[in-house]
Amino acid sequence: MSENNPIIVIDRETGKEFQENVLGEKWIRWAYQDSSSSLIEKLLFRSSALSTAMGWYYDSPLSKGKIQSAIDELSIDTDEFADPQESFKSFNEFFIRHLKEGARPFDGGEDTIVSPADGRVLVFPKLEEDTFVPVKGHGFSIRKMLPGIAERYIGGALAIVRLCPADYHRYHFPCAGEIVKAKDIAGAYHSVNPIALGAGPDVFGENKRSYTLIKTEKAGTLCYVEVGAFGVGSIVNTKTQGRVAKMEEKGYFKFGGSTVVVVFEPGMINFSADLVTNSAAGKETLVKVGQPFATLA
């Protein structure tokens, strides 16, 4: 991705392309694309200090005044909010808002896997090796992302769902199953924006992240990964054990851009055709949680 290239996303519901509005784009490009910024990049994005400070601020009442400006700048639909805007006591209360019942309908079919979150999706229908390449020229390693458990997923399929500040930031289970293992992995706080991905850091293998193994009846044991990022106060998993239902809430991200990665064992699923086509062209697809994502193979 060149320095001047905009981020183009395909809206699944309309089929039209749009240019993504990136909060803090100037600073992201400076940190990752300016050759003089390597020391700053290390200080800002490899340390938790600034993200922790930002998390404190956005949890505090001092941040409440930023809610309306974010709604205006990012064109957020307030009609979807389960609670009135004036009830939010901090920016993070707004950021992790619940939606009204029925705002995200989903396909309840047993053979359907649904999107785990609102976000911009790239899919990789078959991982021939341990690397996947969401940005041309920069590979990311499953072995590095999932140390100790990666082998079972090589030859499988992988989906990246990238959340932006405008998105609903609660994430859900894409199908029914049972949690069999969960693990937190410490790491850096790189941005998950394509600008940063294109600069070369292995965001998925270096960033703070959590993974959950979910044993399903028909889709094998999938691995659900939450990747933290710059400005993310925390990854909060609200369901950590036992049986899970399709579209049951799994957790939420506090303020910042964040990503969910879902990895399937070989031969278990087929991603939806539009996601495959768009991803093959190097374009993300904007989807909503609960929309069709894949079917059983």
Structure description:
This protein is an alpha+beta fold. It has helices spanning 25-33, 38-45, 49-59, 67-74, 91-95, 142-145, 194-197, 203-206, 273-280; strands at 8-11, 17-19, 112-114, 119-124, 131-135, 138-141, 157-163, 170-172, 177-185, 209-215, 221-227, 235-237, 242-244, 249-253, 258-264, 269-271, 284-287, 292-296. Strands 2-1-17-4-7-15-11-10-9-13 form a ten-stranded mixed β-sheet. A three-stranded antiparallel β-sheet has the order 3-18-16. Strands 8-14-12 form a three-stranded antiparallel β-sheet, with no helix packed on it. Residues 27-35 have low confidence and may be disordered.
Please provide the ordered H/E string of secondary-structure elements. Answer: EEHHHHHEEEEHEEEHHEEEEEEEHEE
Low-confidence residue ranges? 27-35
Characterize the largest beta sheet: strand count, sense, and whether it forms a barrel.
Answer: 10 strands, mixed
Strand order of the largest sheet: 2-1-17-4-7-15-11-10-9-13
Percentage of residues in DSSP E strands: 25-35%
Radius of gyration: 18 Å
Q: Percent of residues in helical segments?
A: 10-25%
Mean pLDDT over the full residue set: 85
Number of helices: 9
Distance between the termini: 34 Å
The total of beta strands comes to 18
